[in-house]
Design brief:
Elements: H1 22-27, H2 31-40, H3 47-76, E1 91-94, H4 102-107, E2 110-111, E3 113-116, E4 122-123, E5 128-129, H5 134-148, E6 153-157, H6 169-189, E7 194-199, H7 207-210, E8 223-224, H8 233-251, E9 257-260, H9 275-288, E10 291-294, H10 309-318
Parallel strand pairs: 1-2, 1-10, 3-6, 6-7, 7-8, 9-10
Antiparallel strand pairs: 4-5
Length: 323
């Protein structure tokens, strides 16, 4: 078997690469510097304060650190993204099917299955076309579950029937009905599976129609595509926040697991993202959503080079460390 990816030397610059996480620097300030900050809050000319300073010292340190933490959090939430308590239960999914993909599974990533549109589905205002039979669908689904090693988390990657790309409400509703049928068939095959769909959640077109498949009996999670397709990280962050806003409008109780890739636009031939961009994406998603689905073009006939810096960053996260 051949390697799909060219090895990339693992590099680390703990200062430049961690600028997206200023909170760590606040927490790592030496006590002497914090003492100076606390002392600045107190007039050294006051006899009273000088007597009680030692007693109040740690209370004041906590107070000042809390203020600094709030300021740091405010400073690192790009594009107005609201901070949410997802870090402690943040999930990192392995959305690859390499011959040695279980290397990342053993590191702590969770296997995740994508089922692709091998039928070339389409819908218009009257009906949908190239729809598989129940047996055809279930057979294809079983094949992908075997390749990706998971029947616990499954996402439909059917880009020809992504609802926000529909040209009319009638077409969008036909796509909803077809997706509902596929959800039923998937649950019949894997009753315990959590099911979602690869989608462009940052677009708000037909949001009310999309909402129909995220209610009871519908999808169990959102899976917005957040491959870096844009000129800079600020735009990427704005799109992430737009996806969160739209998804919460539909169903705030469901988790959001974003598709991300270490490659530009998720395409291997485009080359790797810069280290700073990759680390920023990991930091931002960890702060505001429930998890990420790490995806690259892959095949069971190809081995992944396991000595790449983007993989090391993922191992840091699943081990409980910051990227």
């Amino acid at each position: 078997m051949r390697l799909l990816h060219q090895p990339r030397q693992i590099k680390r610059d703990d200062i430049s690469k961690r600028q997206t996480e200023p909170l760590f620097y606040v927490l790592n300030l030496p006590l002497t510097q914090l003492d100076e900050n606390v002392a600045a809050c107190i007039s050294h000319e006051s006899t009273f304060f000088s007597k009680v300073f030692k007693t109040l010292k740690f209370m004041l340190i906590i107070r000042c650190v809390s203020v600094s933490m709030l300021a740091a959090i405010s400073g690192c939430t790009d594009a107005g993204a609201e901070r949410q308590p997802h870090e402690t239960n943040f999930r990192v999914f392995n959305g690859t099917r390499f011959a040695n993909a279980d290397d990342l599974d053993r590191a702590g990533l969770l296997p995740f299955t994508s089922i692709y549109d091998v039928w070339k589905l389409t819908c218009d205002e009257t009906q949908c076309y190239n729809v598989p039979t129940e047996s055809q669908f279930k057979k294809t689904l079983a094949s992908y579950v075997a390749q990706f090693r998971s029947s616990s988390f499954i996402a439909f990657d059917f880009e020809n029937i992504v609802i926000d790309k529909a040209t009319s409400a009638e077409q969008a509703n036909n796509e909803v009905q077809l997706l509902k049928k596929f959800i039923v068939w998937t649950r019949e095959s894997y009753p315990k599976a959590k099911i979602g769909i690869y989608d462009y959640d940052f677009n708000s077109k037909f949001l009310d129609i999309r909402a129909k498949i995220y209610r009871e009996g519908g999808f169990d999670f959102f899976a917005p595509t957040m491959y870096q397709r844009w000129p800079n990280h600020d735009i990427w962050s704005a799109r992430l926040q737009a996806a969160i806003t739209n998804d919460h409008t539909i169903n705030k109780s469901l988790p959001i697991y974003a598709y991300i890739s270490p490659y530009k636009a998720g395409v291997t031939k485009n080359g790797f993202l810069g280290d700073a961009e990759w680390l920023a994406q990991l930091a931002d998603t960890r702060r505001v959503i429930n998890g990420v689905i790490v995806w690259t073009q892959s095949s069971t006939a190809i081995k992944l080079d396991t000595n790449q810096s983007w993989e090391a960053d993922l191992r840091h996260i699943v081990s409980g460390k910051a990227p």
